[in-house]
Amino acid sequence: MFNPSRNQVRDFFFQAWEKFKASQPLSGLETLAVDHIARHPEYHSVLDQPERYRDREWPPELGETNPFLHLSMHVSIAEQLSIDQPPGIRSRYDRLVARLGDEHAAQHAVMDCLGEMIWRAQRDRLPPDGAAYIDCLEKKCLG
């Protein structure tokens, strides 16, 4: 399993953004990352300043969103959707898109469920619960 360090993840986003701005060819994963970066202009200034933001903390208790975590979750969700893993995520996502009328809003709804699943797994020291993840998405589909 791929388990990059915090700095490797951050460097990936910094480099993908820099390559995009320089009109250099992007890998498939870099293209996916840049697609999500483009939907988040509030992160562009962060990605333009790697020396300033590589080591910065974004404590959630201060109400701050970590842009690297946020973008990583978008990439993870896109990959989950591409292979329908956990099974049923794609159909729930499609229903969310139809209900919300916006793919990005649907991704954020999925992100809420993904974050909850990860938090519970860490808190309980158990593997992630794919069934609970899908159940959360089903509830969001129903509104």
Any overview of this molecule?
There is one protein chain. With 143 residues, this protein is mainly α. Helices cover 69% and strands 0% of the residues. The longest helix is centred in the last third of the chain and has 22 residues, at 103-124. The termini are far apart. It has eight helices and no strands. The protein folds into two domains: 1-56, no CATH class; 84-143, no CATH class.
In angstroms, what separates the terminal alpha carbons?
A: 35 Å
Number of domains: 2
Average pLDDT confidence is: 94
Low-pLDDT stretches: none
Number of continuous helical runs? 8
**Secondary structure tally: strands:** 0
Rg, rounded, reads: 16 Å
Helix-residue proportion: 55-70%
Biggest beta-sheet profile: none
Shape: globular
In N-to-C order, the SSE pattern is HHHHHHHH
Q: Which features characterize this protein?
A:
mainly alpha, 143 residues, 2 domains, 8 helices, 0% strand, globular
